[in-house]
């Protein structure tokens, strides 16, 4: 078939490669090209155990204090609050034990083999050398902070994830980068990292083109519809049609979803990173700093601090406080860190109210498919999402329950 994939991030490129390997004629359509958004700026962690949503019980009570604490990882552009409130109401409504269990069971299926999925996607390409099978660590400043996180670790253990709880001094014998900053470190096994996420996705896109795929730089302005069935993409460079269309537009997916008859409660979650170029100290493994909910990841020639949640929409530019918070946190952890320069970045994560990505057909006829909404785990889940989408288009039933990710749960009735 002729297939269009809308979006050139890790999810879109993964869909395109697996569809291409299945024998289809594939074109990627993107406004700016491969890995120019969150697929460049993420933390670079293959977070197989990321089965705990942000919306955990008690979030509503904690959120106001976090917004007023300049060292907390939650930020809000207050002028955006009136537009945010309908989404926020539904988002916070998922902060229940039942939804944590539902989310965890669904995401464990999607994420558990992320390292193997990346290796399969990148096999035989120049992208493969960016994949590293490292542990993913969580650093807690105090034993009490670790104890307060037991709900999350109990759920990960019950889901079959392997991790080791270490005394901070013991971990420092393995990795001295953080000194005595942590009293407890949890090492999650069977994880990994990408040492340059932007270069990785671009290398995958280059492979796709080398194998005969096409990348068209165009902005999608509208959809041509016949009832609920899509007939073409309208772009600033003309209409494009295909036998199947896959939407992997990340945080820019909401408008397209609505045109397809899907009323997805959806927002942009703005994420930030700072990079220390040529740092004097480099951790061995990615480290989630529990006090600030951000990750320090060793990259190729850089140390990246990435994370933070800010609600402020797609249009406003970066805010200064998240960058300043990351700088303060890193300075406390590594006060003697030296580097050539600091590079700052802000991007957008696609955040459905239930935190579950949309993966599947948008209509009963399977004319178009959704592959977006991965929130904090787009890099982790991208290759498997692409493999699932390719299988669905070819009529293969995956060996997992896709009901939690079904786009048609949001179909207008």
Automatic annotation (TrEMBL):
Q: Is Oxidoreductase included in the keywords of this UniProt record?
A: yes
What Gene3D superfamilies does this protein map onto? D-Amino Acid Oxidase, subunit A, domain 2, FAD/NAD(P)-binding domain
One Pfam family of this protein, by short name? Answer: DAO
Gene Ontology MF: a single term: oxidoreductase activity
Q: Which UniProt keywords apply?
A: Oxidoreductase
Q: Which GO terms describe its cellular component?
A: cytoplasm
The source's superkingdom equals Bacteria
List, alphabetically, the InterPro entries matched: FAD-dep_OxRdtase, FAD/NAD-bd_sf
* Record flagged with keyword Oxidoreductase: yes
Q: Which residues form the FAD dependent oxidoreductase domain?
A: 3-391
**Name by which UniProt lists this protein:** D-amino-acid dehydrogenase
């Amino acid at each position: 078939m002729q297939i269009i994939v809308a979006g050139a991030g890790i999810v879109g490129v993964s869909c395109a490669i697996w569809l291409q390997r299945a024998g289809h004629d594939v074109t990627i359509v993107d406004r700016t090209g491969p890995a120019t958004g969150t697929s460049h700026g993420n933390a670079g962690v293959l977070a197989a155990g990321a089965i705990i949503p942000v919306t955990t019980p008690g979030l509503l009570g904690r959120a106001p204090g976090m917004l007023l604490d300049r060292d907390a990882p939650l930020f809000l552009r207050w002028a955006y609050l009136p537009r945010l409130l309908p989404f926020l109401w539904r988002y916070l409504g998922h902060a229940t034990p039942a939804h944590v269990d539902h989310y965890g069971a669904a995401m464990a299926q999607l994420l558990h083999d992320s390292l193997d999925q990346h290796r399969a996607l990148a096999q035989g390409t120049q992208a493969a050398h960016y994949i590293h099978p490292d542990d993913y660590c969580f650093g807690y400043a105090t034993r009490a902070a670790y104890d307060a996180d037991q709900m999350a670790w109990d759920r990960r253990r019950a889901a079959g994830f392997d991790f080791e709880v270490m005394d901070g001094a013991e971990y420092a014998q393995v990795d001295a980068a953080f000194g005595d900053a942590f009293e407890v470190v949890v090492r999650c096994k069977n994880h990994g990292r990408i040492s340059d996420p932007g270069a990785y996705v671009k290398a995958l896109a280059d492979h796709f083109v080398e194998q005969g795929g096409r990348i068209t730089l165009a902005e999608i302005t509208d959809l041509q519809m016949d009832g609920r069935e899509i007939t073409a993409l309208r772009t600033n460079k003309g209409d494009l049609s295909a036998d199947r269309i896959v939407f992997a537009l990340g945080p820019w997916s909401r408008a397209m979803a609505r045109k397809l008859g899907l009323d997805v409660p959806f927002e942009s979650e703005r994420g930030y990173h700072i990079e220390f170029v040529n740092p004097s100290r480099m951790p061995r493994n990615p480290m989630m700093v529990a006090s600030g909910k951000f990750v320090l990841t060793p990259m190729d020639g850089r140390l990246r601090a990435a994370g933070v949640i800010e609600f402020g929409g797609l249009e406003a530019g970066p805010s200064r406080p998240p960058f300043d918070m990351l700088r303060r946190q890193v300075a406390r952890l590594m006060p003697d860190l030296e580097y050539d320069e600091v590079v700052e970045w802000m991007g957008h994560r696609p955040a459905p109210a239930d935190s579950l990505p949309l993966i599947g057909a948008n209509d009963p006829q399977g004319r178009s498919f959704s592959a977006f909404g991965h929130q904090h785990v787009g890099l982790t889940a991208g290759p498997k999402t692409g493999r699932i989408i390719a299988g669905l288009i070819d009529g293969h039933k995956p060996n997992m329950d896709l009901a939690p990710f079904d786009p048609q749960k949001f179909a207008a009735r």
